[in-house]
Write a structure and sequence with these properties.
By secondary structure, this protein is an alpha/beta fold. It has 11 helices and 13 strands. α1 packs across α9 and α10 crosses α11. The chain is globular. The two termini are about 35 Å apart. Bound molecules: adenosine-5'-triphosphate and magnesium ion.
């Protein structure tokens, strides 16, 4: 039995959320936070709350934001032996605002923060590589240190027979860097499970119809499962040679869309790592994504199985 079900690595940050839709960054306003955040951390929290054995590699500063994040990961039962505490750089931060049309803008301070200083020694990497799945977020491929670490980890996970899932999580602000773009393409080539949003797939397909891009990825790359996330319109799962499975979204009252994709992925991979059939894993993932948007704050909408089963039951089970 591998030591961990799921290993994740990448940015850990404190997030501040603008209180009002339409609130601006260039005039004073009120923000809620700090909330523990970072796409891989949201994913990890969701997977751990569902009972998966999860380990995290990352770095926070020696400050209160670092305490906030480490306390949260620990409370969720996540192994944090590979989470460093930088003595020089502060914990990474992000500010998010919602435009009137619902689109989000971010201001990240990651490059010059502890988040960009993650480092794990060979013994630490070997310990983490003893897992069923390594999950990678495209948003994590934003510093040379993170790109190198995830590369080394992926190589070791492969050598031990583990599998890799990848959510490209493309943010225009981060994708301007050619090294980040190249690393995202490498991870797409190398993953077993691919979890793009509609916007991520559009970035890859350059105007080609979605279904054709997905078919091409399944035919020409290593991946054997693609789950396309369509926010309030649900999701669609594709496997080689099979008809696409459409998964409807659970109708909920959306209060904060941040974290939906990460919770969806965390629930999906926790269920697959536990050996659940794809249909059931997709149902849990859809419920986790729906639950996530009902809470303000990136990780505040993570859920355990009992919460998801209640949400599914309240909608009559089927989706
Ligand atoms: P993120 O902003 O976290 O990167 P994403 O773009 O990766 O999100 P989404 O498609 O927004 O992912 O959300 C993932 C899944 O969560 C959806 O496929 C859907 O199942 C569920 N979901 C998202 N938004 C809603 C909503 N408003 N109502 C119900 N379910 C939702
Ligand atoms: Mg996403």
């Amino acid at each position: 039995l591998p030591r961990f079900d799921i290993v994740t690595a990448g940015e850990l940050l404190a997030e501040f959320v603008a209180e009002r839709p339409g609130q601006r960054f260039d005039v004073p306003g009120r923000f809620q936070g700090p909330f523990p955040s970072g796409a891989p951390a949201i994913f990890a929290s969701q997977a751990a709350r569902m009972g998966a054995r999860v380990a995290y590699a990352g770095c926070v500063g020696s400050d209160g934001f670092g305490d906030l994040i480490l306390d949260r990961l620990t409370a969720d039962g996540i192994d944090t032996a590979a989470v460093g505490r930088d003595v020089e750089y502060p914990t990474g931060t992000a500010f998010v605002r919602y435009r009137d049309d619902g689109d989000r803008d971010f201001i990240f301070n990651l490059t010059h923060s502890a988040a960009a200083r993650l480092d794990v020694d060979d013994a630490g990497l070997e310990r983490l590589a003893d897992c069923r799945y390594l999950h990678v977020m495209g948003s994590s491929l934003s510093s040379p240190a993170a790109i190198a670490l995830i590369d080394r980890l992926a190589t070791r996970v492969r050598a031990r027979g583990g599998r890799i899932s990848f959510d490209p999580n493309i943010r225009a602000e981060l994708m301007a860097d050619p090294a980040t773009r190249a690393a995202v393409l490498t991870r797409i080539d190398d993953c077993d499970v691919f979890l793009p949003s509609e916007a991520d797939l559009a970035w890859l397909s350059h105007g080609e119809p979605e279904a054709e891009t997905v078919a091409r990825l399944l035919d020409e790359r290593r991946m054997s499962l693609v789950v396309l996330k369509r926010a309030a319109r649900g999701s669609e799962a594709f496997t080689s040679g099979h008809a696409a499975r459409r998964v409807a979204a659970y109708p909920v009252d959306e209060r904060d869309p941040t974290g939906a994709g990460d919770c969806f992925g965390g629930a999906l991979m926790a269920a697959l790592a536990a050996g659940e059939p794809l249909e059931r894993a997709l149902q849990l993932a859809s419920a986790a994504g729906a639950h996530a948007v009902t809470r303000v704050g990136p990780m505040e909408g993570c859920s355990d199985r009992a919460t998801l089963d209640a949400l599914i039951a309240s909608h009559g089970g089927a989706r």
